[in-house]
Amino acid sequence: MSEKYRAGVIGCGVIGSFIEDTMNNSARFSLPNGHAACYDSMHEINLVGGSDISLERRIAFSKRWNLPEKQVYADYTKFLDEQKLDIVSIATPSPHHTTPTLDSINAGIRAIFLEKPIASNIAEAKKIIYESDKNNVSLAINHTRRGDYAYRVAKKLIDDGSIGELHTMIAHFSGALMFIGSHAVDILNYFVGDCPVKWMTGHLDKEPDFDPGGNAYILYENGVRAFVNGTTGHALGFKIEVIGSEGEIIIGNHDLQFWRTNTEGGSRTLVQHPFPQVYTAISPMVALIEELIAASKGGPAPISNGSTALEALKIIVGLHISSS
Predict the structure, then answer these.
(1) Residue 151: phi, psi to the nearest 5?
(2) CB under 8 Å to 83, separation ≥6 — which residues?
(3) Both ends of the chain: CA-CA distance in Å?
(4) Helical residues (DSSP H) of 109-196, grouped into ranges
(5) Using only C-alpha atoms, what is the Rg of the chain?
(6) Which residues face 31 on adjacent strands?
(7) How many Cβ atoms sit within 10 Å of the Cβ of residue 75?
(8) Is residue 146 exposed (0-12), middle (13-18) or buried (19+ Cβ within 10 Å)?
(9) pLDDT (tens digit, 9 = 90+) per residue, 36-73?
(10) Taking the CA of residue 297 as centre, how many other CA atoms within 13 Å lie in the half-sphere pointing to its CB?
(11) Which residues of 32-50 are buried (b: 16+ CB within 10 A; e: fewer)?
């Protein structure tokens, strides 16, 4: 790769370009957020262009990121051929992840930052992983919370035994298993140490037909249980409850709580403790991109990679199959 990495975005919509316009101060998110915004903020990266089938989005992308319109393409294959990218983001809608990812691999791109879910079905996900491995292409998936240092601190608390032995996890979100649920099941997998699932069962909402919500019960091979409360219409936003033998962690878009059992007096009540909040201040997506760059230079695979994303997809697909 060059000294300054040349980056581009395929898919100049919300997550590719302007998601920050939709955000407000009611939730705990770190900026920059969105593919172009992250590249634009990183001194070691030059955002050199993008591609989208929509003329309106192409014009908006070029204006927002101060790029010549000729560097924002309708045909992403021409974009890949002419701009000689080091890193490309695939920020297209989920059903359209596979083909541009494989075309990027074939074009010689060495690092790909792919939106979640990795694909719309398991066969396509495995094809992406196989081709990236075969061609020595570093692949990171934007399961953003794996890059969030608050979630990494929660994981350290779990691993250090601060809540005792991990027992049960509950993921709350309202609807859209592929869009939101993939984040939830991926972070459950992360907290349980990416232990394989032994078995699961669940059922889908009847409505809507496209990307419905649903509920699931998951048993991991290490005995940890997880519940997915993802049915459409309930009042809870994105939140994860992690329950151990000696405490609990609650973390999400609005929550950072750490509780430990008070054994004095024999009552074993939970007492709230301060959630550790001294850690690196960095955007979760930037953290994932930095890991992707390191991987492309021979470092370890990003914490959110093809294999971890495949396991999250398997749970979503399993819930669909269980409900059929």
Answers:
(1) -70, -35
(2) 6, 8, 48, 49, 71
(3) 47
(4) 122-134, 149-159, 182-191
(5) 20
(6) none
(7) 11
(8) buried
(9) 999 999 999 999 999 999 999 999 999 999 999 999 99
(10) 10
(11) bbbbbbbbbebeebbbbbb
One-character DSSP codes across 111-123: EEEEPSSS-SSHH
How far apart, in whole angstroms, are the C-alpha atoms of residue 11 and residue 64?
Answer: 14
Reference 98, options 80, 78, 122, 79; nearest CA is: 122
The pLDDT tens digits for 221-231 are 999 999 999 99
pTM: predicted TM-score of the whole model, two decimal places: 0.95
Locate 74 and state its tokens. 């309708």
Question: Can you tell me the distance from the alpha carbon of 188 to that of 193, in angstroms, rounded to the nearest whole number?
Answer: 9
pLDDT tens track for 109-149: 999 999 999 999 999 999 999 999 999 999 999 999 999 99
Q: In terms of Cα–Cα distance, which of 322, 323, 284, 320 is closest to 304?
A: 284
Could you tell me the two tokens for 108?
Answer: 């010689």
Count, residues in the chain: 324
- Cα 174 to chain centroid distance, Å, stands at 17
Q: What is the mean pLDDT of each run of 10 residues along the chain (324 residues)?
A: 85 96 81 96 97 98 98 98 97 97 97 98 98 98 97 97 98 95 98 98 85 96 98 94 98 95 81 88 95 97 98 96 88
| Ordered strands of the 239-244 beta sheet | 197-204, 214-220, 225-230, 166-172, 239-244, 247-252, 256-262, 269-273
DSSP summary character for residue 178: I
Q: What element of type H or E holds 216? A: strand 214-220
DSSP 43: T
